[in-house]
What we know:
This protein is an alpha/beta fold. The protein folds into 2 domains: 203 residues, FAD/NAD(P)-binding domain; 150 residues, 3-Layer(bba) Sandwich (FAD/NAD(P)-binding domain), CATH 3.50.50.60. It contains 9 helices and 26 strands. The strands form 9 sheets. It has a 5-stranded parallel β-sheet, covered by helices on one side. Strands 13-20-14-15-16 form a 5-stranded parallel β-sheet. Strands 8-9-10 form a 3-stranded antiparallel β-sheet. Helix 2 runs parallel beside helix 8. The protein starts with 5 loop residues before the first helix and ends with a helix. Flavin-adenine dinucleotide binds next to helix 2, helix 3 and helix 8.
Amino acid sequence: MNDKSPVSLDLNRRRFLQFSTGAGAAALLASSGLTANTIDTRARIVIIGAGAGGMAVANRLSRRLNGASITVVEARETHHYQPGWTLVASGVWKPEKTVRPNSQFMPGNVDWIRSSATALDPDNRTVALANGETLSYDYLVVATGIQLNYEEIEGMSADLVGQHGIGSVYASLEGATRTRDLIDQWIARGQGQGIFVHAPTPVKCAGAPLKMTLTTLSRLEATGNRDQFQVDFFSPGGGVFSQPWVNDFVIQRFAEQGVNRHSFHTLTAIQPQDRTATFTLGDGSTVTRDYDFIHVVPPMSAPDAVRNSALVNEEGRFGGNWLDVDMYTMQHNRYPEVFGIGDVIGAPINKTAASVKAQAPIVEANLIAAIQNQPLPRKHNGYTSCPLITGIGKAMPVEFGYDMEFLPSFPFIDPKEESWATWTFKDRMLQPAYYAVLEGRA
Ligand SMILES: Cc1cc2nc3c(=O)[nH]c(=O)nc-3n(C[C@H](O)[C@H](O)[C@H](O)COP(=O)(O)OP(=O)(O)OC[C@H]3O[C@@H](n4cnc5c(N)ncnc54)[C@H](O)[C@@H]3O)c2cc1C
């Protein structure tokens, strides 16, 4: 083999990186005021996406790595606190409460490229950007979040949210706000048919479709004319939530609150002008229903840049749609220099900001170990949480892991009990905690 071949150059570069991390760390301990945990390295790290996951990892790595080149690719100037959108769509929060500038959280010592990744080539360790640049990396963190595939529902598109009785808390902050307005209008009419659905794919915050149903029910009951409103919930599977106890709880609550539930019904088409929605059943037959208000939950996947790359799951449940990482170590299953965090990964649960909080220290520790050529020291237990708003003013924590067991953060809060305390936690305390995660402090 030619000494100057890309593979040979690459091996040399990796050996150099390994050497410089070890030597550098020792030198730092001896000669600088930096902490023992600070690692000296010249690794080139590219982080794609600076939402909850990408921003948390950028902050953590920028503090731990001395001399690294860290590049963050993120086109948006604005950071959205998405967990607040259910409160916006339920009329509890003002929309502007969920918005901050990305510059508030971006560490000063990273190179922030305001563009988006269009193609990922892990065999050559490059990322092509929409602005025409191509970045090379030694280590890559994929943190692109999720893609909303509204167009997979025939007749549907994101810009329909807010028109023809179509709401969707997921679409955007504007979409959540328009959803709030449509629910207000429906309630003001004093009667009618509301349809709520779940999606046939994994979705971010799988509790959000339930929360939108339960807060709307709360508001319908507050009118004193609940009987004038018909509410139906359609789900593609037999249940409504992955955690079995919560699933049973919500199904029972829907029954108590007069929600007509339809299992094995997938929303596959919508006719906005007619205000009708078509569902496909397990046997392929279809049923079409009228609505006055419908809450649409789109099918979701990793963004196309990931889906169209070699980094995507090749087969199985997540095949063709999600980032192929080990859901415990967060390291890519075939490209060890690639890590993933957040909604983009192929995992059975986990698409929450609470999961990002748990994953960020794992990615930090394991990526730094990879740079040092050490075994990966940490594993993620699948911790996820999505405070289930069971009505305006009450919620339950809903914290669990891959094994579906509850993982309560507060021993004094019963994970199976609705309470005003958990509502207050969701309403007042989660947002500051979320920003601490972005800053890499929690
Ligand atoms: C309505 C709603 C309610 C929710 N409620 C809760 C809750 O109660 N509790 C909870 O814990 N979580 C909740 N979540 C989920 C939570 O917001 C997400 O799980 C979390 O934001 C995931 O972080 P992420 O970094 O993976 O994705 P995001 O935070 O979405 O960030 C992804 C970033 O990647 C960028 N990006 C995308 N594609 C590219 C590309 N090709 N190139 C470069 N950049 C790219 C995007 O611009 C974005 O900034 C909710 C979400 C929604 C929508």
